[in-house]
Amino acid sequence: MAYTNILVSENDGITTITINRPKKLNALNRETIQELHDAFEEADEDVETRVILLTGSGEKAFVAGADISEFANFDVAEGANLSKKGQEILFDFIENLSTPVIAAINGFALGGGLELAMACHFRIASDNAKMGLPEVSLGVIPGYGGTQRLPQLVGKGKAMEMIMTASMITAEDALQNGLVNHVTTPEGLLTLAEIIASKILRNSPLAIASAIKAINANFEDGVNGYQVEIAQFGYCFGTDDFDEGTTAFLEKRKANF
Ligand code: COA
Question: Where are the domains of the chain?
Fold first, then answer.
């Protein structure tokens, strides 16, 4: 599919999606959100793709937020709809994807940009990255899941402080608080993402999809995550990947999933 605001490339099981509006610091306008939805859907359905990397183009930004120029004149209903639709088609969509998604944060990840990174399954960052949820400085709150996912990752107190102060934190601070898993140089960021992805590629895609479902169940209202784990654990026993994984172990060879 041809896109205007994103770039998509596939190599050895890894699909890289790059948000490509560097002059606007990769801000998420409506069209970019729709294109990202389409690209994630396409990558998830592509049997060749086993890991998805998400990053921003240019040296300055991952994503500097939702595109403020698009919603500055919205009324109450339009504001609520912006949040609802975005959560449905992109943020929740990514979180619940069967294919692992790693955010490679290469600069500013602010507002909707940090929310996008937090919707990914985990995050790594370059040492020049700056992260924050500055929405209250605009008279609004995070609307793409930020009030929910930030406390899940950094704890309630740190999330309260970050959101109330609208301040940015450094990559090192993000690492110490569990917001990102690794920090490296800007030049080394995609290489590190690919090294981590290559470790994921060795493992059963079906088991990974089940693990994503079970882990996410811990954060869903009214869902017993232990019950989801039991169901997914059982499901794995009926898959070809389980046959291959256990047989390979017993035959002292590497599994070929
Ligand atoms: N929405 C729309 N446009 C944005 C944007 C956003 N969230 N973030 C940056 N841009 C645009 C700027 O308007 C500017 O466009 P212009 O050249 O046509 O004027 C361009 O991107 C470059 O940004 P600029 O502000 O000139 O860069 P900077 O280095 O001085 O500052 C930031 C960088 C990230 C500190 C600053 O752009 C910023 O505060 N952005 C908004 C962050 C935010 O509040 N995000 C949450 C939105 S909910």
Answer: 6-201, 205-250
Q: How far apart are CA 198 and CA 201, in angstroms?
A: 5
Tallying the residues shown for the chain, one arrives at: 257
User: How far, in Å, is the centroid of ligand 1 from the Cα of 182?
Assistant: 26
Architecture of domain 6-201: Alpha-Beta Complex (3.90)
Full-prediction pTM beyond 0.90?
A: yes
86 Cβ below 6 A of ligand 1: no
100-138: per-residue pLDDT in tens?
999 999 999 999 999 999 999 999 999 999 999 999 999
CB 132 near ligand 1, within 6 Å = no
Cβ of 64: how many Cβ atoms within 10 Å?
A: 25
Helix (H) / strand (E) element for 186: namely none
Phi, psi angles (nearest 5°) of residue 6: -135, 160
